[in-house]
Amino acid sequence: MYQQHFGLSAEPFSIAPDPHFLYHSERHQEALAHLVQGLQGSGGFILLTGEVGTGKTTVSRALLEQLPDSTEIAFILNPMLNEDELLATLCDEWGIRYQKGRATRKVLTDKISQFLLDAHQQDRQCVVLIDEAQHLKPQVLEQLRLLTNLETTKSKLLRVILIGQPELQTLLKRQELRQLAQRITARYHLLPLTNYDTERYIAYRCQMAGANRPLFTQPAAMNAHKLTGGVPRLLNLLCDRALLVAYADGQMQVDKAHVKRAAHELGQFDEPHQKANQRPRWPWLLLPLAAMAIAAVIRWWPATEAEVSASERTYDYHNAQLLASAWQLPKPPRDKAFCDWVTNYQLACLRTHSVSVAQLQNINYPALLLSDGQAGTVLASMEPVDTQAWSGEVIGLYQRPDIRYQRGSADVGELTEWVKQQLARYLSDSQQRLDARTQLQALQRQAGLPVTGELNPLTLAWLSARYYESGPRLQEVN
């Protein structure tokens, strides 16, 4: 209705997962890179999770467009299958002939195995991509794992991409699926858009639809971000209606008032209400540090169950909401331990007392500084901070390195390899020939951190902050 009015050749905010309209935010680029890297590796399973509407399906469509013609894709949109239906669907997707109604599970499995072997001999890669995978039954996932058992000495003959909501990560932690979980070699949790990316996202989609000028004012874009939390699907719904509202007003540009009216008409967006005396407007709140001192050079896990429980008693639900908001996570549930809940997002809960403001600034993550267990000073920029009321305690979250792990334990070999790779980025060739403790000491001196020779919380945070491009950072002082 409004396309001609705004000079558009297409609908800029259709909710269809059209790769042509995929705005490559930093997070979407990382998600796509993880999928591509996973397909190039030797593993069997690749995991992409995210809240409803964050763009998982669109990223998967973009991946499909990048795959070479030699790829045999089986795309499963309906995960509500049993084991036999899964095998039959794979045969249908790959054009494998079988007698419907008569084929047993063994017959279907044998046919698929032969197909995979033939494809490998012809240098063709076989990929199964399952959307809404959180609905898969454990038995079906186990059947998929059995199919990935077929392998050469160098790689699997079948790769499986599981795409779903955060509940998928919870499903994969079940005891009967532990073997499958250990085969996940690449995983990524897609978060909503940041403030900056929301503005770029809106402008990009308008441009791709034929706009030759900005159709949304900056205040309008920022208000859209506040109302939607940066979730692309919600942004599409709201911005489409805002264009219609502006068109009805005879205006050539969407302003903040148009966005507010659109939200009211749709009836599913809450106005942001944040009184100064109730909740401070903190742009970022977090420093990812570990929850316990790490005595060994290589040791991994933020806290024991007892320590997590103790830390959760220290800060209240309001602080939990602030931390979730800093990472643009949904509102945390009250009926589940916060530190357990954030593991669904490849994050972990952590806290420390052994840190100074200068060291926090070297790490370049914002921090929530506590006073007697309550919210105190917020380190959000490089500016000096009044630490008079600060007890020295920091709480927050951190993004774990993308390695296989189990709760309470870790694949030490994989962590060791990850740390070695990170040290190689910052140390000279001669330094890399030193023992692990001396290498860490050299890095700590270079980074302005306490020189302990151990992979302590500060050192781990410094490495993680530079390994992951996404995530909050301290604001520079002009």
TrEMBL record:
<feature type="domain" description="AAA+ ATPase">
    <location>
        <begin position="42"/>
        <end position="197"/>
    </location>
</feature>
<dbReference type="Pfam" id="PF01471">
    <property type="entry name" value="PG_binding_1"/>
</dbReference>
<dbReference type="GO" id="GO:0016887">
    <property type="term" value="F:ATP hydrolysis activity"/>
</dbReference>
<dbReference type="InterPro" id="IPR003593">
    <property type="entry name" value="AAA+_ATPase"/>
</dbReference>
<dbReference type="InterPro" id="IPR049945">
    <property type="entry name" value="AAA_22"/>
</dbReference>
<dbReference type="InterPro" id="IPR036365">
    <property type="entry name" value="PGBD-like_sf"/>
</dbReference>
<dbReference type="Pfam" id="PF13401">
    <property type="entry name" value="AAA_22"/>
</dbReference>
<protein>
    <submittedName>
        <fullName>General secretion pathway protein</fullName>
    </submittedName>
</protein>
<dbReference type="InterPro" id="IPR002477">
    <property type="entry name" value="Peptidoglycan-bd-like"/>
</dbReference>
<dbReference type="InterPro" id="IPR052026">
    <property type="entry name" value="ExeA_AAA_ATPase_DNA-bind"/>
</dbReference>
<dbReference type="InterPro" id="IPR027417">
    <property type="entry name" value="P-loop_NTPase"/>
</dbReference>
